[in-house]
Backbone:
């Protein structure tokens, strides 16, 4: 997989998508500034590293380690891939070992079921008529056992489990426990209520996570084709969480970041990517980091550049994210650098949208998005398949764009257009205001502006910045798109996570403000990541818009985001997720 992301990210520049060449080295092994193809290296004291500077537009960008990006993208894409059963006869070196029963059905034959295949009964008490004695109704449910397969090459028999809950201890409380964790359930309280030990609860969370991944992956096979039939309007943002510390002598939390993309029209959460890796060999990676003194090298030269392996390299907290305390890397697992986590997130989303004729992407004002989005979507931007805009609000510093001079200029233009087109509606005039700004942005005296000021005074989004470039053909389309500027989809999703997953609630601050601790947050971010994915699948397939329909007094049938996208035709239940089996779908 050959990838080169070190190019100019300015879509209006001739160097956009043109990769920079490697610099020649001086005798002391330091790089020359000039790269020979309209790029140069500029040293930044702020980040203590070289930046890639385009000589055509004079914009600078962080250098990306392409190998680290590929590794992280492959890791993210491999999450949830089901293991395909195959012949287990390794002792005789059977040629069918590793060849799955779905990919190579002709080399296996079915050989009956295990004897555990049976029906089971659930007694249900119903009230009798006229105060008579209660009646007991017996409901029969089919429990799938295991399907036997025989390898035609070596004759080896092996079983494929059809019921994912077949050997579960306390199977009867799986649904209750699942629903608790997607409705602000707390681990300690569930151990008390259900009489379970903590390890059993965590084992069941892991089971819920695996089932959610399989259920989602199976149904999202058709998501690419569904999006190809429409023009989705997507919103993207980041949300920050704190996990508690393990060592009482160093009471510093760890921060993990969730980057999510949501379809504004349906509410479907395409992906929630957390910058935490619990599957890789952290001990080996950390030892290699120390042994080869990777910390002394620039990040773009490191072997494992996607990971933050030192407390000194943890990205500094900001008050805007309600985190103003010292941070540390997690004691367990690996913290992924936000740059590579964001790039991997966009790669995953791009795979779902690759067949779309055209789509719209609204992103929060974040420097990581300005670097990562053009890097990944460069080919689609060049093909004019998408419109992408960075949004800023008054709260996030957008008010700085509206000083007295700019406000007066905006009002003057609005009055001029109103006089010129007296019969047009307010929305039509706003559209004309957007169009005039593409040619003549509202600017501060003596400064060049990349922001387009929102003429709608009722909108919470003060201004937008195009990421995909502007040409004469796209101005008309863009002015219509910007009428619906919104991050509502991702904002609602983050609100669901904060309110319904206890480990992700905002941390409380001590009286001295020297510590920040969340009573319900995990000490191992692994469980926080798994609960996010569980909640994503439950939100997409099980949570309906019944509440919003009632507020609108609509008589429409409540639907889930997955129904509105068109990948399922019913409201799914918790049992649908818990009982889902890839093997059963393909075998029975």
Residues:
């Amino acid at each position: 997989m050959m990838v080169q992301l070190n190019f100019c990210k300015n879509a209006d520049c001739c160097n956009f998508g043109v990769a920079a060449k490697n610099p020649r080295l001086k005798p002391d092994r330091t790089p020359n500034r000039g790269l020979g193809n309209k790029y140069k290296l500029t040293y930044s004291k702020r980040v203590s590293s070289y930046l890639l500077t385009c000589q055509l537009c004079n914009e600078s960008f962080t250098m990306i380690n392409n190998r680290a990006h590929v590794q992280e993208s492959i890791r993210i894409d491999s999450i949830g891939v089901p293991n395909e059963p195959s012949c287990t006869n390794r002792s005789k070196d059977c040629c069918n070992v590793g060849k799955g029963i779905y990919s190579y059905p002709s080399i296996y034959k079915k050989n009956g079921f295990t004897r555990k295949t049976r029906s089971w009964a659930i007694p249900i008490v119903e009230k009798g008529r006229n105060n008579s004695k209660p009646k007991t109704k017996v409901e029969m449910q089919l429990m799938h056992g295991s399907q036997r397969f025989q390898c035609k090459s070596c004759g080896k028999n092996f079983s494929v489990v059809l019921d994912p809950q077949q050997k579960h201890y306390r199977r009867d409380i799986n649904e209750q426990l699942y629903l608790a964790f997607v409705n602000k359930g707390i681990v300690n309280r569930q151990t008390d209520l259900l009489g379970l030990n903590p390890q059993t609860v965590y084992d069941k969370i892991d089971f819920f996570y695996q089932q959610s991944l399989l259920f989602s992956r199976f149904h999202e096979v058709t998501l690419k084709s569904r999006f190809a039939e429409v023009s989705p309007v997507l919103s993207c943002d980041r949300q920050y969480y704190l996990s508690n510390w393990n060592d009482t002598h160093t009471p510093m939390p760890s921060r993990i970041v969730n980057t999510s993309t949501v379809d504004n029209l349906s509410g479907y959460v395409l992906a929630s990517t957390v910058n935490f890796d619990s599957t890789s060999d952290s001990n080996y990676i950390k030892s290699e980091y120390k042994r080869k003194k990777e910390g002394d090298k620039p990040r773009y030269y490191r072997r494992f550049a996607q990971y933050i392996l030192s407390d000194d390299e943890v990205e500094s907290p900001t008050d805007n994210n309600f985190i103003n305390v010292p941070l540390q890397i997690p004691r367990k697992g690996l913290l992924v650098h936000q740059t590579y986590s964001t790039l991997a997130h966009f790669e995953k989303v791009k795979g779902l949208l690759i067949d779309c004729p055209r789509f719209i992407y609204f992103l929060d004002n974040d420097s990581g998005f300005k670097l990562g989005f053009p890097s990944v979507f460069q080919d689609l931007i060049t093909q004019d398949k998408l419109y992408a805009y960075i949004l800023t609000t008054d709260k996030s510093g957008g008010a700085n764009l509206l000083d007295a001079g700019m406000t007066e200029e905006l009002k003057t233009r609005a009055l001029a257009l109103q006089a010129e087109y007296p019969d047009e509606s307010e929305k039509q005039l706003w559209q004309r205001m957007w169009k005039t700004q593409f040619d003549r942005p509202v600017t501060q005296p003596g400064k060049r502006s990349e922001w387009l000021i929102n003429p709608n005074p009722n909108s919470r989004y003060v201004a937008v910045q195009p990421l995909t470039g502007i040409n004469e053909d796209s101005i008309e389309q863009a002015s219509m798109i910007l009428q619906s500027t919104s991050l509502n989809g991702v904002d609602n999703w983050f609100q669901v996570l904060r309110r319904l997953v206890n480990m992700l609630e905002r941390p409380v601050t001590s009286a001295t403000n020297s510590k920040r601790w969340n009573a319900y947050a995990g000490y191992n971010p692994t469980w926080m990541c798994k609960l996010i994915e569980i909640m994503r699948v439950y939100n997409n397939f099980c949570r309906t818009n019944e509440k919003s329909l009632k507020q609108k007094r609509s008589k429409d049938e409540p639907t889930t985001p997955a129904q509105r996208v068109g990948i399922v035709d019913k409201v799914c239940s918790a049992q649908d997720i818990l009982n889902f089996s890839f093997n059963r779908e393909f075998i029975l």
In short: The first helix runs from residue 66 to 78.
